[in-house]
Amino acid sequence: MFFKKFRVKMILILFLPMIALLTTTSITPHLQEVESDEVLEYKESYNSVSVIDNQLEPTSSTHQKDFILEEIHRMKQEILKRKSEKEIQNANIKSDKLSHSVEILSENKIRKQYRAVEVVATGYYAGVDSTGKTPDHPEYGITYSGVKVRRMPESVSTIAADLNLFPLGTVLYIPGYGYGIVADIGSAIKGNVIDLYFNSKEDVYKLWGKKKLDVFIIEEGNGRITEAILQQKMDTFRS
User: Fold this and answer.
1) Helix, strand, or coil here: 54?
2) What is the DSSP string of 52-71?
3) 135 vs 62 pLDDT, higher one
4) What is this structure's pTM?
């Protein structure tokens, strides 16, 4: 055991200065390209030095060992930070590209590019005639999914649908209405029937009424929608 510990000490005394030099001269260039395998590489390096730390008794090389630990930890944090920033940047670029591609599509191109489903589309608003709730009700204006109702002609509005046909989060293009995202349900909304949200009872009758038409599935939902997801869709499909 004594000779084993002595051997470990001698190896560290001889090679830790070289490792310290390599750490400061070779890790930084790798930050130019932040990839997941680099994060794994430095994580393994950090863990390896941690193992040495557990085996090593206090020696004259402790300062060097601590320096390496600190440097690897710092680089690891920097890589993770830049990786996160890169992921956010890529997500924003993807969102911008999708937004642009959606914006430039005319209704004619949408009809050619996306699957159509024939539905009967009615209209509703948050008031008592449609929902049985008054403005003082704690759930007034709150959809089945928990998000607030919205009518955004220049972006995405909340709509109700049969979740067996259109899961929560599904984005539809409805000619004459715009983009709608499924966030609500209704007792009369079964099968190929959808209910489009409007800000008032007057708008329901004046702007829509009841129509039979084809709607187009832009994105199929995964059965979940939150305020954050809704905001993201509103930004993506903003005209």
Assistant:
1) helix
2) HHHHPPS-TTHHHHHHHHHH
3) 135
4) 0.57
